[in-house]
Amino acid sequence: MRAMVLDRPGFPLELRDLTDPSPGVGELLVRVRACAVCRTDLHIVDGELPAVRLPLIPGHQIVGTVEKIGAEVQGFAIADRVGIPWLGWTCGDCAYCKSDRENLCDRAKFTGYTCDGGYAEAVVADARFCFRLPANYDDAAVAPLLCAGLIGYRALRKTDSAERLGIYGFGNAARIITQVARAQGREVCAFTRPGDVAAQRAAIDIGAVWAGGSDQAPPRRLDAAIVFAPVGSLVPIALRNLVKGGRVVCGGIHMSDIPSFSYRDLWEERSIESVANLTRRDATEFLEIAARLPLRIETETFSLADGNEAVARFRDGTLRGTAVLVP
Ligand SMILES: [Zn+2]
Ligand SMILES: [Zn+2]
Prior knowledge:
Low-confidence stretches: none
Helix content: 10-25%
CATH superfamily of the largest domain: Medium-chain alcohol dehydrogenases, catalytic domain
CATH topology of the largest domain: Quinone Oxidoreductase, Chain A, domain 1
Order of helices and strands: EEEHEEEEEEHHEHEHEEHEHEHEHE
Strand content: 25-35%
Distance between the termini: 10 Å
Radius of gyration: 19 Å
Bound molecules: zinc ion
Largest sheet: 7 strands, mixed
Number of helices: 9
Shape: globular
CATH class of the largest domain: Alpha Beta
Number of domains: 2
CATH architecture of the largest domain: Alpha-Beta Complex
């Protein structure tokens, strides 16, 4: 199989010919049909997250078809379409796994980070962490649901019943979650880079009731805010726009430092929380919602060999939708 391989963070991926992996006990060999690029891939490629496995094939929003089935796998047949997300394996045995918080598992494995991912023509994955995908999306359109959608949904769940929601950083996750929030009857205020009128227009177009720069205040205070942008200085800004008891949820895996702020901004039971990874329950719930809605997903597709260009365009902010590699 061909794959885009990371040898050294900070350097381009290399297109390489490798032998197909073979599925072990409980695993599937999946022929990749699409793999969406996530901001976490950028953090891995650029070395902002510690390198835990090199060389590495990145990519954790994988759509493909089952080609081989390992021993003891149940519930999948050859040619089934499956999705493979970030959470690749959990131990099932630690205190977190036993308390319905497998996203925090002490020994968790992550697709495209601690095990090889989907910037390739084929990948192996633990079948228990593979999902059937809603039929109303094609391969490229459904791929961004597997992280931007799933982890965005986990962030949305953490806002509980917040009716007036602020979203900072209007990228892939924000576009998906705005549509879900609206369908749930919530109002979304979108905060973009100051002066980014095109992003503000796109946010309104997809259902935000208000859009402005992150330096602006929303028309009314927010019940909760989700910060998807990896920019720590947005956290105290979001906090100041909350009602009493409101919550800021940080949706990313990496963020620049949060500057110090007055306790007054946190007082009156405001809180700051982060989201880490996903549980299989998040995936099942969100994919059911996605099947019902359906969500508008914009993508820009790239060949596998153009993986570096896809990553660079994401980094530069010049994509017109989610970048998706189509081998
Ligand atoms: Zn565990
Ligand atoms: Zn991701």
